[in-house]
Request: fold
Amino acid sequence: MRILVVEDDLALARGLVAAIRAQGGAVDHVDRGSAALREVRAQPYAAVVLDIGLPDMSGLDVLRRMRAAGVRTPVLMLTALGRLQDRIDGLDAGADDYLAKPFELDELQARIRALARRGRGGELASVVRIGALTLDRARGEADVGGAPLDLRPREWAVLDALAAKPGELVTRERLAAEIFDYDSPVAPNALDVHVGRLRRKLSPGGPAIRTVRGRGYVLEA
Ligand code: CA
Reply:
């Protein structure tokens, strides 16, 4: 999943970005509302984390303009503690959820997981079973035949993306967009390395990941 963080407090933004990456998401960060509006139109984000107080415009205005432009990406609004009116205004403007500062990063992670599931069309089950594999998206856990899989964040992200379409080709471009940030350099074979590690962890007993040479991967149903 790919998340956009809109936050001008750079220390907080670093924490948000790290927390999202820790669970396997790719993150883009901007600190202005105008930049956020450009990004959401250009990229299919799974969710947007949007601060209400931005230097160039209110987060509420960003949200209203997004919705007016037909962008339906789920939005988690960050509000100041105790500002009840902020929350009401945020929900009125089309926010899907809100979190008052300060908040615990694991709460943020859980909210983002829930929003991202909703954002991908709402049809993604929180628990999927493919052969002996069970993927629990709400808890961020997976097991094969009851034995927990110890997955790194990017291995989780690859599995999550493949498991959304079992038996179907998921392109390399699609997978790369789910796990890599635009601003960090990526080795040409980085995706294959993550898939290779994931494949070893799934076998024996779990579903196979088939390579479609030069195009992508299929999680065999
Ligand atoms: Ca702010």
About this structure: The chain has a mean pLDDT of 89. The longest strand covers residues 75-80. The pocket of calcium ion is lined by residues 8-9, 51, 53-54 (CB under 6 Å). The helical segments are 10-22, 33-42, 59-68, 84-93, 105-119, 153-163, 172-179, 190-202.
